[in-house]
Design brief:
This protein is mostly helical and 339 residues long. Helix content is 52%, strand content 7%. Helix 8 links the parallel strand 4 and strand 5. Helix 3 packs across helix 12, helix 4 packs across helix 7 and helix 10 packs across helix 11. It binds adenosine-5'-tetraphosphate. Adenosine-5'-tetraphosphate (AQP) binds next to helix 1.
């Protein structure tokens, strides 16, 4: 099959902390299904992206192994999918530079994630944070990925990757890059919210561990976090619409629906008129049944660093083969002397 007709999927997670239920329901669980619907899959651990918001508490090597263990324990199969660390394939950075030379600053200044992460002090934000979407475009275009599963928050960056590919093709007057198609993950849990505040997303960098369920949380910790999860005084309604203005309740219903492969309307109907106490008990049991085994498997895998590093090195060499071939083609287009 020619590369142009091939379905090649690429996606990634930043190794910035403990992998949580949002990462799992919003991304990794969907990749597990998608990996069997394409000819090639690349699941990257984007450690260079983590450097844009690096904190002293980040232990990049261990966090990277933690993400690899989460991928494997969730069902990403290394026989179908390359699992690798972004920094192990140097061409990501090389291509990012080349693409950065044709990306107008105006495009980057419009990115909402930059505005969110830089806050008011844009003068103090690092160049890497502004250039993040260019590196993401490089991650995708380096492999000529045809499809990119993205969460809601990454849609704008993927659109930019398509714009950059188009700008390159126009400048060099050829269809060098194929425009990557988004796979918009329209699942119930496209955005899992914090357990402490239903208006902000569940996040690795939230200071409160009670805001999220980590994949490695024990059954006791899961039970405690759900017990403490913010709710309101009303019983659960029969209609999803009635949860408007009740973000924490909506979030818990959405999590339940997603874990039980229902739509949230069905979950509402099941729990209509119930108090949070009885609903939370069932949600806890469901979370323990679905998440605790993944955590257990992650712990087992993390006990075998040699195995995890072998997975990462094998994945990197698969990715590297594609990357170096594409960079060689690209050098010819740019008029650089071949390596
Ligand atoms: N709360 C979420 N709900 C649904 N999907 C989510 N994702 C992240 N949080 C949620 C999806 O997980 C994938 C990998 O995310 P990432 O780690 O690369 O970046 P992120 O979105 O910045 O994740 P965090 O947890 O919020 O990390 P920090 O705190 O370091 O910024 C993506 O597909 C993302 O959509």
């Amino acid at each position: 099959m020619s590369e142009k007709n091939m379905k090649r999927i690429l996606s990634g997670v930043r190794p910035t902390g403990a992998i949580h239920l949002g990462n799992y329901l919003g991304a990794i669980r969907n990749w597990v299904k998608l990996q069997h619907q394409s000819e090639e899959n690349l699941f990257c651990i984007v450690d260079l992206h983590a450097l844009t918001t690096v904190e002293e508490s980040h232990d990049l090597a261990n966090n990277t192994r933690n993400v690899a263990a989460a991928y494997l324990a969730s069902g990403i199969d290394p026989k179908h999918s390359a699992i690798f660390s972004q920094s192990h394939v140097a061409e990501h950075s090389e291509l990012a530079w080349i693409l950065g030379c044709l990306t107008p600053l105006g495009w980057l200044n419009r990115m909402t994630q930059f505005k969110d992460k830089a806050g008011k002090k844009t003068e103090h934000a690092c160049l890497g944070l502004l250039a993040y979407p260019v590196l993401m475009a490089a991650d995708i275009l380096l492999y000529r990925a045809s499809h990119v599963p993205v969460g809601e928050d990454q849609k704008q960056h993927l659109e930019l990757a398509r714009d950059i590919a188009g700008a390159f093709n126009r400048r060099y007057n050829q269809e060098f890059f194929q425009l990557p198609e988004p796979i918009i993950l329209g699942t119930a849990a496209a955005r899992v919210m914090s357990l402490r505040d239903g208006t902000v997303k569940m996040s690795k960098s939230d200071a409160s561990d009670y805001s999220r369920i980590n994949l490695m949380d024990s059954a006791d910790v899961i039970a405690l976090k759900i017990r403490k999860a913010k709710t309101d005084a009303e019983p659960l309604p029969a209609e999803l619409k009635a949860l408007e203005g009740r973000p924490e309740a909506l979030n818990l219903i959405t999590i339940f629906a997603s874990l039980s492969d229902q739509n949230p309307t069905q979950t509402c109907q099941t729990y209509a008129g119930h108090s949070f106490a009885s609903f939370k008990k069932d949600l806890t049991d469901l979370l323990i049944a679905k998440i605790a085994p993944i955590g257990e498997e992650m712990r087992r895998l993390l006990g075998d660093e040699t195995y995890l590093d072998t997975i990462l090195h094998t994945g990197a060499s698969q990715a590297q083969k594609l990357a170096s071939k594409h960079m060689q083609d690209l050098r010819a287009v740019l008029g650089l002397i071949p390596l």
